[in-house]
From TrEMBL:
Naturally occurring in which organism (per UniProt): Odontophorus gujanensis
Protein name listed in UniProt: CFA54 protein
InterPro entries cross-referenced by the UniProt entry: CFAP54
GO biological process, one term: cilium assembly
Source organism, top-level taxon: Eukaryota
Protein backbone atom coordinates (compact mmCIF):
# COMPACT_ATOMS: atom_id res chain seq x y z
CA UNK A 1 0.00 0.00 0.00
CA UNK A 2 2.88 2.38 0.78
CA UNK A 3 4.07 2.04 -2.83
CA UNK A 4 0.94 3.92 -3.95
CA UNK A 5 1.38 6.78 -1.47
CA UNK A 6 -0.49 7.62 1.74
CA UNK A 7 -2.46 4.78 3.30
CA UNK A 8 -5.82 6.50 2.99
CA UNK A 9 -8.90 6.53 0.78
CA UNK A 10 -7.74 6.83 -2.83
CA UNK A 11 -4.94 4.36 -2.36
CA UNK A 12 -5.86 1.37 -4.61
CA UNK A 13 -4.94 -1.22 -1.95
CA UNK A 14 -7.02 0.57 0.69
CA UNK A 15 -9.95 1.01 -1.70
CA UNK A 16 -9.81 -2.66 -2.66
CA UNK A 17 -9.83 -3.73 1.00
CA UNK A 18 -12.74 -1.42 1.80
CA UNK A 19 -14.76 -2.74 -1.13
CA UNK A 20 -14.22 -6.39 -0.17
CA UNK A 21 -15.04 -5.73 3.49
CA UNK A 22 -18.15 -3.78 2.49
CA UNK A 23 -19.33 -6.70 0.37
CA UNK A 24 -18.78 -9.38 3.00
CA UNK A 25 -20.32 -7.31 5.81
CA UNK A 26 -23.34 -6.54 3.65
CA UNK A 27 -23.69 -10.25 2.81
CA UNK A 28 -23.51 -11.24 6.50
CA UNK A 29 -25.96 -8.50 7.47
CA UNK A 30 -28.52 -9.67 4.91
CA UNK A 31 -27.99 -13.28 5.94
CA UNK A 32 -28.52 -12.42 9.61
CA UNK A 33 -31.72 -10.58 8.70
CA UNK A 34 -33.05 -13.58 6.77
CA UNK A 35 -32.44 -15.94 9.71
CA UNK A 36 -34.13 -19.33 9.52
CA UNK A 37 -36.03 -18.28 6.41
CA UNK A 38 -32.85 -18.97 4.41
CA UNK A 39 -32.74 -22.75 3.78
CA UNK A 40 -28.95 -22.88 3.29
CA UNK A 41 -28.13 -20.49 6.11
CA UNK A 42 -25.27 -22.49 7.64
CA UNK A 43 -23.56 -23.08 4.32
CA UNK A 44 -23.86 -19.43 3.31
CA UNK A 45 -22.66 -18.28 6.71
CA UNK A 46 -19.61 -20.56 6.45
CA UNK A 47 -18.89 -19.06 3.03
CA UNK A 48 -19.03 -15.54 4.48
CA UNK A 49 -16.72 -16.47 7.37
CA UNK A 50 -14.21 -18.01 4.96
CA UNK A 51 -14.31 -14.90 2.78
CA UNK A 52 -13.51 -12.68 5.75
CA UNK A 53 -10.69 -15.01 6.81
CA UNK A 54 -9.17 -14.85 3.31
CA UNK A 55 -9.41 -11.05 3.27
CA UNK A 56 -7.32 -10.74 6.43
CA UNK A 57 -4.73 -13.21 5.12
CA UNK A 58 -4.56 -11.43 1.76
CA UNK A 59 -4.12 -7.89 3.05
CA UNK A 60 -1.97 -8.36 6.17
CA UNK A 61 1.38 -8.20 4.27
CA UNK A 62 0.11 -5.34 2.10
CA UNK A 63 -0.85 -2.89 4.86
CA UNK A 64 1.04 -1.25 7.72
CA UNK A 65 0.30 -2.72 11.17
CA UNK A 66 -1.38 0.42 12.51
CA UNK A 67 -3.93 0.47 9.70
CA UNK A 68 -4.47 -3.28 9.69
CA UNK A 69 -5.05 -3.44 13.47
CA UNK A 70 -7.42 -0.48 13.44
CA UNK A 71 -9.44 -2.09 10.63
CA UNK A 72 -9.61 -5.39 12.55
CA UNK A 73 -11.32 -3.70 15.47
CA UNK A 74 -13.65 -1.59 13.35
CA UNK A 75 -14.86 -4.66 11.45
CA UNK A 76 -15.23 -6.48 14.78
CA UNK A 77 -17.46 -3.66 16.06
CA UNK A 78 -19.57 -3.89 12.89
CA UNK A 79 -19.97 -7.65 13.38
CA UNK A 80 -21.04 -7.12 17.01
CA UNK A 81 -23.73 -4.71 15.82
CA UNK A 82 -25.28 -7.45 13.68
CA UNK A 83 -24.82 -9.98 16.52
CA UNK A 84 -22.11 -12.01 14.79
CA UNK A 85 -20.29 -12.43 18.09
CA UNK A 86 -18.37 -15.61 17.30
CA UNK A 87 -17.08 -14.23 14.03
CA UNK A 88 -16.08 -10.95 15.71
CA UNK A 89 -14.25 -12.85 18.45
CA UNK A 90 -12.33 -15.25 16.21
CA UNK A 91 -11.71 -13.14 13.12
CA UNK A 92 -11.22 -9.68 14.65
CA UNK A 93 -10.57 -9.24 18.37
CA UNK A 94 -8.89 -12.63 18.73
CA UNK A 95 -6.78 -12.02 15.63
CA UNK A 96 -5.66 -8.65 17.01
CA UNK A 97 -4.67 -10.22 20.35
CA UNK A 98 -2.63 -12.91 18.60
CA UNK A 99 0.32 -10.50 18.65
CA UNK A 100 0.57 -11.21 22.41
CA UNK A 101 1.59 -14.84 21.99
CA UNK A 102 2.97 -15.38 25.47
CA UNK A 103 -0.32 -16.04 27.27
CA UNK A 104 -4.04 -16.79 26.88
CA UNK A 105 -6.15 -13.80 28.03
CA UNK A 106 -8.42 -16.22 29.93
CA UNK A 107 -5.49 -17.13 32.19
CA UNK A 108 -5.12 -13.55 33.48
CA UNK A 109 -8.10 -12.52 35.58
CA UNK A 110 -6.62 -11.16 38.82
CA UNK A 111 -2.89 -10.46 38.36
CA UNK A 112 -2.52 -6.78 37.52
CA UNK A 113 1.27 -6.86 37.02
CA UNK A 114 1.11 -9.83 34.63
CA UNK A 115 -1.72 -8.11 32.77
CA UNK A 116 0.36 -4.95 32.28
CA UNK A 117 3.55 -6.68 31.21
CA UNK A 118 1.70 -8.96 28.79
CA UNK A 119 -0.57 -6.54 26.98
CA UNK A 120 1.14 -3.18 27.60
CA UNK A 121 4.91 -3.79 27.51
CA UNK A 122 5.48 -0.23 26.23
CA UNK A 123 3.20 1.41 28.80
CA UNK A 124 -0.14 3.14 28.42
CA UNK A 125 1.20 6.04 26.37
CA UNK A 126 1.82 3.69 23.47
CA UNK A 127 -0.34 4.52 20.46
CA UNK A 128 -1.76 0.97 20.40
CA UNK A 129 -2.78 0.94 24.09
CA UNK A 130 -6.34 2.15 23.49
CA UNK A 131 -6.79 -0.42 20.70
CA UNK A 132 -5.62 -3.20 23.01
CA UNK A 133 -7.98 -2.11 25.79
CA UNK A 134 -10.83 -2.01 23.29
CA UNK A 135 -10.01 -5.48 21.92
CA UNK A 136 -9.82 -6.99 25.42
CA UNK A 137 -13.12 -5.49 26.50
CA UNK A 138 -15.02 -6.40 23.35
CA UNK A 139 -13.58 -9.91 23.48
CA UNK A 140 -15.24 -10.35 26.87
CA UNK A 141 -18.55 -9.05 25.54
CA UNK A 142 -18.46 -11.55 22.67
CA UNK A 143 -17.73 -14.46 25.03
CA UNK A 144 -20.70 -13.51 27.23
CA UNK A 145 -23.04 -13.15 24.25
CA UNK A 146 -21.93 -16.53 22.88
CA UNK A 147 -22.74 -18.13 26.24
CA UNK A 148 -26.19 -16.53 26.19
CA UNK A 149 -26.80 -17.80 22.65
CA UNK A 150 -26.20 -21.41 23.69
CA UNK A 151 -27.59 -21.25 27.24
CA UNK A 152 -29.87 -18.24 27.63
CA UNK A 153 -30.92 -19.06 31.21
CA UNK A 154 -27.36 -20.01 32.24
CA UNK A 155 -28.48 -23.42 33.47
CA UNK A 156 -25.11 -25.12 32.90
CA UNK A 157 -22.40 -24.78 35.50
CA UNK A 158 -19.79 -24.07 32.85
CA UNK A 159 -21.90 -21.16 31.59
CA UNK A 160 -21.93 -19.63 35.06
CA UNK A 161 -18.18 -20.10 35.41
CA UNK A 162 -17.58 -18.43 32.06
CA UNK A 163 -19.75 -15.45 33.07
CA UNK A 164 -17.80 -14.94 36.29
CA UNK A 165 -14.51 -15.22 34.39
CA UNK A 166 -15.75 -12.54 32.03
CA UNK A 167 -16.72 -10.31 34.97
CA UNK A 168 -13.28 -10.76 36.55
CA UNK A 169 -11.58 -9.98 33.25
CA UNK A 170 -13.66 -6.82 32.69
CA UNK A 171 -12.92 -5.70 36.25
CA UNK A 172 -9.17 -6.23 35.80
CA UNK A 173 -9.19 -4.26 32.54
CA UNK A 174 -11.00 -1.39 34.28
CA UNK A 175 -8.63 -1.56 37.25
CA UNK A 176 -5.63 -1.06 35.00
CA UNK A 177 -7.30 1.69 32.96
CA UNK A 178 -8.82 3.63 35.87
CA UNK A 179 -5.85 5.95 36.57
CA UNK A 180 -5.78 7.03 32.91
CA UNK A 181 -8.38 9.78 32.52
CA UNK A 182 -8.23 9.57 28.74
CA UNK A 183 -9.60 6.00 29.05
CA UNK A 184 -12.75 7.06 30.89
CA UNK A 185 -14.77 5.74 27.92
CA UNK A 186 -13.45 2.28 28.70
CA UNK A 187 -14.46 2.61 32.37
CA UNK A 188 -17.96 3.73 31.39
CA UNK A 189 -18.40 0.88 28.89
CA UNK A 190 -17.03 -1.55 31.47
CA UNK A 191 -19.66 -0.52 34.03
CA UNK A 192 -22.37 -1.13 31.40
CA UNK A 193 -21.02 -4.60 30.64
CA UNK A 194 -20.75 -5.47 34.35
CA UNK A 195 -24.28 -4.25 35.01
CA UNK A 196 -25.72 -6.19 32.06
CA UNK A 197 -24.09 -9.48 33.07
CA UNK A 198 -24.82 -9.02 36.78
CA UNK A 199 -28.51 -8.28 36.15
CA UNK A 200 -28.73 -11.48 34.16
CA UNK A 201 -27.11 -13.43 36.98
CA UNK A 202 -29.32 -11.77 39.60
CA UNK A 203 -32.38 -13.11 37.80
CA UNK A 204 -31.18 -16.68 38.42
CA UNK A 205 -30.34 -16.21 42.09
CA UNK A 206 -26.65 -15.25 41.91
CA UNK A 207 -26.97 -11.90 43.71
CA UNK A 208 -24.50 -12.81 46.48
CA UNK A 209 -21.76 -13.53 43.94
CA UNK A 210 -22.28 -10.49 41.70
CA UNK A 211 -22.44 -7.95 44.53
CA UNK A 212 -18.68 -7.32 44.51
CA UNK A 213 -18.69 -6.54 40.79
CA UNK A 214 -21.57 -4.07 41.03
CA UNK A 215 -19.86 -2.39 43.98
CA UNK A 216 -16.71 -2.11 41.90
CA UNK A 217 -18.61 -0.55 38.99
CA UNK A 218 -20.22 2.00 41.33
CA UNK A 219 -16.88 2.98 42.88
CA UNK A 220 -15.28 3.32 39.43
CA UNK A 221 -17.93 5.87 38.43
CA UNK A 222 -17.05 7.88 41.54
CA UNK A 223 -13.25 7.66 41.13
CA UNK A 224 -13.15 8.58 37.45
CA UNK A 225 -13.21 12.39 37.44
CA UNK A 226 -14.79 12.75 33.95
CA UNK A 227 -17.53 10.24 34.92
CA UNK A 228 -18.34 11.88 38.26
CA UNK A 229 -20.13 14.77 36.57
CA UNK A 230 -23.87 15.33 36.43
CA UNK A 231 -23.97 14.00 32.85
CA UNK A 232 -23.43 10.47 34.16
CA UNK A 233 -25.47 10.79 37.37
CA UNK A 234 -28.45 8.85 36.00
CA UNK A 235 -26.22 5.87 35.26
CA UNK A 236 -24.52 6.11 38.67
CA UNK A 237 -27.92 6.05 40.36
CA UNK A 238 -28.84 2.95 38.35
CA UNK A 239 -25.68 1.21 39.58
CA UNK A 240 -26.38 2.28 43.18
CA UNK A 241 -29.89 0.86 42.87
CA UNK A 242 -28.55 -2.46 41.58
CA UNK A 243 -26.16 -2.74 44.54
CA UNK A 244 -28.99 -2.06 47.01
CA UNK A 245 -31.16 -4.60 45.23
CA UNK A 246 -28.38 -7.18 45.59
CA UNK A 247 -28.31 -6.62 49.33
CA UNK A 248 -32.08 -7.05 49.56
CA UNK A 249 -31.89 -10.24 47.48
CA UNK A 250 -29.31 -11.55 49.99
CA UNK A 251 -31.70 -10.82 52.88
CA UNK A 252 -29.40 -8.03 54.06
CA UNK A 253 -31.92 -5.21 53.83
CA UNK A 254 -30.14 -3.03 56.38
CA UNK A 255 -27.03 -2.94 54.16
CA UNK A 256 -29.22 -2.17 51.14
CA UNK A 257 -30.73 0.81 52.96
CA UNK A 258 -27.32 2.00 54.19
CA UNK A 259 -25.89 1.88 50.67
CA UNK A 260 -28.91 3.75 49.30
CA UNK A 261 -28.42 6.45 51.94
CA UNK A 262 -24.75 6.62 50.97
CA UNK A 263 -25.82 7.09 47.34
CA UNK A 264 -28.17 9.87 48.42
CA UNK A 265 -25.26 11.63 50.12
CA UNK A 266 -23.14 11.31 46.97
CA UNK A 267 -25.95 12.81 44.90
CA UNK A 268 -26.41 15.67 47.35
CA UNK A 269 -22.67 16.45 47.35
CA UNK A 270 -22.66 16.57 43.56
CA UNK A 271 -25.70 18.85 43.66
CA UNK A 272 -23.92 21.24 45.99
CA UNK A 273 -20.88 21.33 43.68
CA UNK A 274 -23.16 21.96 40.73
CA UNK A 275 -24.85 24.84 42.58
CA UNK A 276 -21.44 26.41 43.30
CA UNK A 277 -20.06 26.00 39.79
CA UNK A 278 -23.18 27.04 37.91
CA UNK A 279 -25.40 29.96 38.83
CA UNK A 280 -28.17 28.78 36.51
CA UNK A 281 -29.46 25.23 36.41
CA UNK A 282 -31.50 24.19 33.40
CA UNK A 283 -34.58 22.02 33.62
CA UNK A 284 -32.71 18.97 32.34
CA UNK A 285 -30.18 19.14 35.18
CA UNK A 286 -32.96 19.49 37.76
CA UNK A 287 -34.70 16.48 36.24
CA UNK A 288 -31.52 14.38 36.45
CA UNK A 289 -31.04 15.17 40.14
CA UNK A 290 -34.71 14.58 40.87
CA UNK A 291 -34.77 11.14 39.21
CA UNK A 292 -31.54 10.05 40.89
CA UNK A 293 -32.86 11.14 44.28
CA UNK A 294 -36.10 9.25 43.74
CA UNK A 295 -34.23 6.05 42.85
CA UNK A 296 -32.29 6.18 46.11
CA UNK A 297 -35.37 7.13 48.15
CA UNK A 298 -37.25 4.14 46.74
CA UNK A 299 -34.58 1.75 48.00
CA UNK A 300 -34.66 3.44 51.42
CA UNK A 301 -38.46 3.15 51.51
CA UNK A 302 -38.23 -0.56 50.63
CA UNK A 303 -36.96 -1.32 54.14
CA UNK A 304 -38.17 1.71 56.09
CA UNK A 305 -41.84 1.06 55.38
CA UNK A 306 -41.62 -2.28 57.21
CA UNK A 307 -39.09 -1.48 59.90
CA UNK A 308 -40.97 1.61 61.04
CA UNK A 309 -43.91 -0.63 61.97
CA UNK A 310 -42.04 -3.49 63.62
CA UNK A 311 -42.44 -3.70 67.38
CA UNK A 312 -40.12 -5.42 69.87
CA UNK A 313 -41.45 -8.82 70.88
CA UNK A 314 -41.78 -7.72 74.50
CA UNK A 315 -43.66 -4.59 73.46
CA UNK A 316 -47.44 -4.67 73.57
CA UNK A 317 -49.86 -2.05 72.40
CA UNK A 318 -53.51 -2.47 71.41
CA UNK A 319 -53.60 -2.61 67.62
CA UNK A 320 -55.66 0.08 65.94
CA UNK A 321 -56.13 -1.37 62.47
CA UNK A 322 -57.58 0.82 59.73
CA UNK A 323 -60.59 -0.66 57.95
CA UNK A 324 -59.40 -0.32 54.36
CA UNK A 325 -62.81 -0.81 52.76
CA UNK A 326 -64.31 1.98 54.84
CA UNK A 327 -61.31 4.25 54.24
CA UNK A 328 -61.22 3.95 50.45
CA UNK A 329 -63.24 7.12 49.83
CA UNK A 330 -61.29 9.24 52.32
CA UNK A 331 -58.59 11.67 51.13
CA UNK A 332 -54.89 10.74 51.37
CA UNK A 333 -53.17 9.90 53.63
CA UNK A 334 -55.62 7.23 54.77
CA UNK A 335 -53.06 4.92 56.39
CA UNK A 336 -49.64 5.12 58.03
CA UNK A 337 -48.07 3.74 54.85
CA UNK A 338 -49.62 6.47 52.73
CA UNK A 339 -48.37 9.06 55.22
CA UNK A 340 -44.79 7.81 54.74
CA UNK A 341 -45.25 7.80 50.96
CA UNK A 342 -46.36 11.42 50.98
CA UNK A 343 -43.45 12.43 53.22
CA UNK A 344 -40.83 10.82 50.97
CA UNK A 345 -42.28 11.35 47.46
CA UNK A 346 -44.14 14.23 45.87
CA UNK A 347 -45.59 12.54 42.77
CA UNK A 348 -47.93 9.63 42.14
CA UNK A 349 -45.49 7.89 39.78
CA UNK A 350 -42.70 8.00 42.38
CA UNK A 351 -45.05 6.75 45.10
CA UNK A 352 -46.19 3.93 42.86
CA UNK A 353 -42.59 2.98 42.05
CA UNK A 354 -41.84 2.84 45.79
CA UNK A 355 -44.86 0.59 46.35
CA UNK A 356 -43.75 -1.82 43.63
CA UNK A 357 -40.21 -2.00 44.99
CA UNK A 358 -41.42 -2.56 48.56
CA UNK A 359 -43.61 -5.46 47.40
CA UNK A 360 -41.07 -7.01 45.03
CA UNK A 361 -39.27 -10.13 46.23
CA UNK A 362 -36.88 -11.98 43.94
CA UNK A 363 -37.68 -15.29 45.68
CA UNK A 364 -41.36 -15.20 44.64
CA UNK A 365 -42.77 -16.41 41.31
CA UNK A 366 -45.94 -14.87 39.90
CA UNK A 367 -47.79 -18.16 39.42
CA UNK A 368 -46.78 -19.54 42.82
CA UNK A 369 -49.10 -17.28 44.83
CA UNK A 370 -48.78 -17.28 48.60
CA UNK A 371 -49.91 -14.82 51.26
CA UNK A 372 -47.25 -12.76 53.08
CA UNK A 373 -44.81 -15.04 54.89
CA UNK A 374 -43.94 -13.12 58.09
CA UNK A 375 -45.80 -14.06 61.26
CA UNK A 376 -45.81 -10.45 62.38
CA UNK A 377 -49.29 -8.96 61.90
CA UNK A 378 -47.76 -5.49 61.47
CA UNK A 379 -45.92 -6.62 58.33
CA UNK A 380 -49.08 -8.16 56.88
CA UNK A 381 -50.88 -4.89 57.57
CA UNK A 382 -48.16 -2.93 55.74
CA UNK A 383 -48.46 -5.18 52.68
CA UNK A 384 -52.23 -4.73 52.61
CA UNK A 385 -51.81 -0.97 52.94
CA UNK A 386 -49.26 -0.93 50.11
CA UNK A 387 -51.71 -2.68 47.79
CA UNK A 388 -54.50 -0.38 49.00
CA UNK A 389 -52.40 2.69 48.19
CA UNK A 390 -51.32 1.24 44.84
CA UNK A 391 -54.90 0.58 43.80
CA UNK A 392 -55.81 4.13 44.73
CA UNK A 393 -53.05 5.47 42.47
CA UNK A 394 -53.89 3.18 39.53
CA UNK A 395 -57.60 3.96 39.67
CA UNK A 396 -57.08 7.68 40.24
CA UNK A 397 -54.46 8.33 37.56
CA UNK A 398 -54.30 7.67 33.86
CA UNK A 399 -51.75 5.12 32.64
CA UNK A 400 -49.15 6.21 30.09
CA UNK A 401 -47.02 4.47 27.45
CA UNK A 402 -43.60 5.72 28.43
CA UNK A 403 -41.72 4.84 31.61
CA UNK A 404 -40.37 7.87 33.47
CA UNK A 405 -39.49 8.52 37.09
CA UNK A 406 -41.06 11.35 39.02
CA UNK A 407 -44.07 12.21 36.85
CA UNK A 408 -47.74 12.14 37.77
CA UNK A 409 -48.91 9.37 35.48
CA UNK A 410 -48.19 5.68 36.12
CA UNK A 411 -46.37 3.79 33.36
CA UNK A 412 -48.03 0.83 31.69
CA UNK A 413 -45.19 -1.51 32.70
CA UNK A 414 -45.56 -0.49 36.35
CA UNK A 415 -49.34 -1.02 36.29
CA UNK A 416 -48.95 -4.51 34.79
CA UNK A 417 -46.36 -5.41 37.43
CA UNK A 418 -48.74 -4.23 40.16
CA UNK A 419 -51.45 -6.58 38.91
CA UNK A 420 -48.99 -9.49 38.89
CA UNK A 421 -47.93 -8.70 42.46
CA UNK A 422 -51.56 -8.59 43.61
CA UNK A 423 -52.06 -12.05 42.10
CA UNK A 424 -48.88 -13.35 43.71
CA UNK A 425 -49.81 -12.08 47.19
CA UNK A 426 -53.40 -13.36 46.83
CA UNK A 427 -54.80 -9.85 47.18
CA UNK A 428 -57.86 -10.79 45.14
CA UNK A 429 -59.93 -7.66 45.74
CA UNK A 430 -57.07 -5.51 44.51
CA UNK A 431 -56.33 -7.88 41.62
CA UNK A 432 -59.93 -7.94 40.37
CA UNK A 433 -60.24 -4.16 40.52
CA UNK A 434 -56.83 -3.20 39.15
CA UNK A 435 -56.92 -5.61 36.23
CA UNK A 436 -59.96 -3.80 34.82
CA UNK A 437 -58.12 -0.48 34.62
CA UNK A 438 -54.96 -2.07 33.23
CA UNK A 439 -56.85 -4.16 30.67
CA UNK A 440 -58.66 -1.09 29.37
CA UNK A 441 -55.29 0.58 28.85
CA UNK A 442 -53.71 -2.44 27.13
CA UNK A 443 -56.57 -2.98 24.72
CA UNK A 444 -56.42 0.66 23.63
CA UNK A 445 -52.78 0.30 22.54
CA UNK A 446 -51.69 -0.58 19.01
CA UNK A 447 -48.04 -1.21 19.81
CA UNK A 448 -47.26 -4.98 19.64
CA UNK A 449 -45.18 -4.77 22.85
CA UNK A 450 -48.37 -4.36 24.87
CA UNK A 451 -49.78 -7.58 23.43
CA UNK A 452 -47.24 -9.47 25.52
CA UNK A 453 -48.59 -7.93 28.73
CA UNK A 454 -52.16 -8.57 27.60
CA UNK A 455 -51.35 -12.26 27.06
CA UNK A 456 -49.78 -12.52 30.51
CA UNK A 457 -52.77 -11.00 32.30
CA UNK A 458 -55.11 -13.25 30.33
CA UNK A 459 -53.15 -16.28 31.57
CA UNK A 460 -53.36 -15.02 35.17
CA UNK A 461 -57.13 -14.66 34.94
CA UNK A 462 -57.50 -18.17 33.54
CA UNK A 463 -55.15 -19.65 36.17
CA UNK A 464 -56.98 -18.04 39.10
CA UNK A 465 -59.97 -20.44 39.34
CA UNK A 466 -57.72 -23.42 38.67
CA UNK A 467 -55.35 -22.61 41.52
CA UNK A 468 -58.08 -21.62 43.97
CA UNK A 469 -61.36 -23.55 43.96
CA UNK A 470 -63.61 -20.94 45.49
CA UNK A 471 -65.99 -18.16 44.51
CA UNK A 472 -64.23 -14.86 44.26
CA UNK A 473 -65.39 -11.86 46.24
CA UNK A 474 -64.88 -8.29 45.10
CA UNK A 475 -64.53 -5.75 47.89
CA UNK A 476 -63.40 -2.64 46.05
CA UNK A 477 -66.09 -1.28 43.73
CA UNK A 478 -65.29 -0.60 40.10
CA UNK A 479 -67.13 1.87 37.93
CA UNK A 480 -69.51 0.29 35.44
CA UNK A 481 -67.73 2.18 32.67
CA UNK A 482 -64.48 0.32 33.39
CA UNK A 483 -65.19 -2.99 31.72
CA UNK A 484 -62.77 -5.23 29.89
CA UNK A 485 -62.82 -5.81 26.17
CA UNK A 486 -63.97 -8.90 24.33
CA UNK A 487 -60.50 -10.41 24.15
CA UNK A 488 -59.83 -10.42 27.89
CA UNK A 489 -61.82 -12.57 30.35
CA UNK A 490 -63.63 -10.25 32.74
CA UNK A 491 -64.25 -10.61 36.46
CA UNK A 492 -67.87 -11.61 35.82
CA UNK A 493 -66.69 -14.27 33.36
CA UNK A 494 -64.61 -15.81 36.10
CA UNK A 495 -67.60 -15.97 38.43
CA UNK A 496 -69.59 -17.89 35.84
CA UNK A 497 -66.87 -20.34 34.84
CA UNK A 498 -65.40 -21.26 38.23
CA UNK A 499 -65.74 -24.95 38.87
CA UNK A 500 -64.18 -26.68 41.81
CA UNK A 501 -61.25 -29.00 41.25
CA UNK A 502 -63.24 -31.79 42.82
CA UNK A 503 -65.84 -31.59 40.01
CA UNK A 504 -63.13 -32.11 37.44
CA UNK A 505 -61.64 -35.04 39.29
CA UNK A 506 -65.05 -36.56 39.97
CA UNK A 507 -65.84 -36.96 36.30
CA UNK A 508 -62.27 -37.85 35.29
CA UNK A 509 -62.12 -35.31 32.47
CA UNK A 510 -60.40 -31.92 32.25
CA UNK A 511 -62.45 -29.01 33.52
CA UNK A 512 -63.81 -26.38 31.17
CA UNK A 513 -61.38 -23.85 32.66
CA UNK A 514 -58.42 -26.14 32.02
CA UNK A 515 -59.38 -26.63 28.37
CA UNK A 516 -59.72 -22.87 27.90
CA UNK A 517 -56.31 -22.33 29.49
CA UNK A 518 -54.69 -24.92 27.21
CA UNK A 519 -56.22 -23.49 24.03
CA UNK A 520 -55.29 -19.96 25.12
CA UNK A 521 -51.65 -20.95 25.64
CA UNK A 522 -51.65 -22.59 22.21
CA UNK A 523 -53.10 -19.43 20.69
CA UNK A 524 -50.54 -17.18 22.43
CA UNK A 525 -47.59 -19.23 21.22
CA UNK A 526 -48.72 -20.30 17.76
CA UNK A 527 -50.05 -16.90 16.63
CA UNK A 528 -47.27 -14.78 18.13
CA UNK A 529 -43.87 -13.80 16.89
CA UNK A 530 -40.91 -14.77 19.09
CA UNK A 531 -40.48 -11.26 20.46
CA UNK A 532 -44.02 -10.98 21.86
CA UNK A 533 -44.43 -14.33 23.59
CA UNK A 534 -45.63 -14.19 27.22
CA UNK A 535 -43.03 -13.87 29.96
CA UNK A 536 -40.81 -16.97 30.08
CA UNK A 537 -41.39 -17.57 33.79
CA UNK A 538 -45.18 -17.33 33.51
CA UNK A 539 -45.30 -19.46 30.37
CA UNK A 540 -43.08 -22.14 31.91
CA UNK A 541 -45.20 -22.31 35.06
CA UNK A 542 -48.43 -22.55 33.05
CA UNK A 543 -47.00 -25.38 30.94
CA UNK A 544 -45.79 -27.19 34.04
CA UNK A 545 -49.22 -26.83 35.66
CA UNK A 546 -51.00 -28.14 32.54
CA UNK A 547 -48.61 -31.09 32.30
CA UNK A 548 -49.13 -32.08 35.94
CA UNK A 549 -52.91 -31.92 35.54
CA UNK A 550 -52.80 -33.84 32.26
CA UNK A 551 -50.50 -36.53 33.64
CA UNK A 552 -52.72 -36.97 36.71
CA UNK A 553 -55.88 -37.18 34.58
CA UNK A 554 -54.45 -39.79 32.22
CA UNK A 555 -53.11 -41.87 35.11
CA UNK A 556 -56.52 -41.80 36.80
CA UNK A 557 -58.23 -43.06 33.64
CA UNK A 558 -55.69 -45.89 33.33
CA UNK A 559 -56.23 -46.88 36.96
CA UNK A 560 -60.01 -47.02 36.53
CA UNK A 561 -60.00 -49.26 33.46
CA UNK A 562 -57.96 -51.42 31.14
CA UNK A 563 -56.68 -48.63 28.98
CA UNK A 564 -57.41 -45.22 27.60
CA UNK A 565 -60.18 -46.35 25.28
CA UNK A 566 -62.54 -47.76 27.88
CA UNK A 567 -63.08 -44.06 28.58
CA UNK A 568 -62.74 -42.64 25.09
CA UNK A 569 -64.62 -39.40 25.70
CA UNK A 570 -62.70 -38.53 28.84
CA UNK A 571 -59.36 -39.60 27.41
CA UNK A 572 -59.84 -37.70 24.16
CA UNK A 573 -59.94 -34.37 26.01
CA UNK A 574 -56.79 -35.18 27.96
CA UNK A 575 -55.09 -36.29 24.73
CA UNK A 576 -56.12 -32.98 23.21
CA UNK A 577 -54.46 -31.11 26.09
CA UNK A 578 -51.39 -33.33 25.73
CA UNK A 579 -51.21 -32.62 22.00
CA UNK A 580 -51.39 -28.86 22.71
CA UNK A 581 -48.54 -29.16 25.21
CA UNK A 582 -46.43 -31.02 22.69
CA UNK A 583 -47.05 -28.37 20.03
CA UNK A 584 -46.31 -25.49 22.39
CA UNK A 585 -43.04 -26.81 23.81
CA UNK A 586 -41.68 -27.16 20.28
CA UNK A 587 -42.03 -23.39 19.85
CA UNK A 588 -40.84 -22.26 23.28
CA UNK A 589 -37.14 -21.96 24.05
CA UNK A 590 -35.58 -23.02 27.36
CA UNK A 591 -38.40 -25.38 28.33
CA UNK A 592 -37.61 -27.93 31.04
CA UNK A 593 -35.98 -30.81 29.18
CA UNK A 594 -37.39 -33.47 31.52
CA UNK A 595 -40.92 -32.22 30.94
CA UNK A 596 -40.33 -32.11 27.18
CA UNK A 597 -39.16 -35.74 27.18
CA UNK A 598 -42.09 -36.93 29.34
CA UNK A 599 -44.69 -35.18 27.17
CA UNK A 600 -43.20 -36.49 23.93
CA UNK A 601 -42.92 -40.06 25.20
CA UNK A 602 -46.44 -40.07 26.67
CA UNK A 603 -48.00 -38.71 23.47
CA UNK A 604 -46.03 -41.21 21.38
CA UNK A 605 -47.20 -44.11 23.54
CA UNK A 606 -50.84 -43.02 23.27
CA UNK A 607 -50.66 -42.61 19.48
CA UNK A 608 -49.05 -46.05 19.12
CA UNK A 609 -51.80 -47.49 21.32
CA UNK A 610 -54.41 -45.86 19.09
CA UNK A 611 -52.77 -47.22 15.94
CA UNK A 612 -52.73 -50.79 17.33
CA UNK A 613 -56.34 -50.75 18.55
Amino acid sequence: AAFFGAVAPGNPVVDSLEAELRDVLGFLRRLRGAGDAEPQWHELHRRGANTLFNIWIKYKPRLPDWYYNDKLLKVGDSLVQIKEYKLALLQCYGRYLQQFLSVNPDDITDDENQFKTTFFPDGFRDKNASLTFHALQERNVCIYQMVCSSDRNLQKQESLQTCFKVLSSVRLTMQVALPQQNLCWLIYNGTIHIYTICRHLMMIGQSAKVLEYLLWASVCMELSIPLSSVDYLTWRATLYTAVSQCYFDCQAGIHGEVFARRGLIQIDELKQLEDISSSQKNSETRKIFREATIKMSVMIFKRAVYESRRKPKSYYQPKLKVNLKEAQNLPWPRTTTEQLLMEMFDSSAAQFLAILEALSDSSRRVLHPTPPVPDEPEIRDVISELFFAGLGIVSGNSIKNQKSVGEKKVSGEAAVKFVKLAFNYEEWDVFDSAIVFVTNFLQAQNDPRWKKAEMELKLLILMQPLLFSRKFRHGFPVSENNTGGDNMPSVSDKKNTVRSESDSLKYGEPSHDLLILATTVFSCVSTSKQNILPDQEILSDVLMFLWKECKTGLQRIQMNGNGYFNHKYKASKWIYVLWILNEVILNVADTDVVMVAEITLRLTAILENMADS
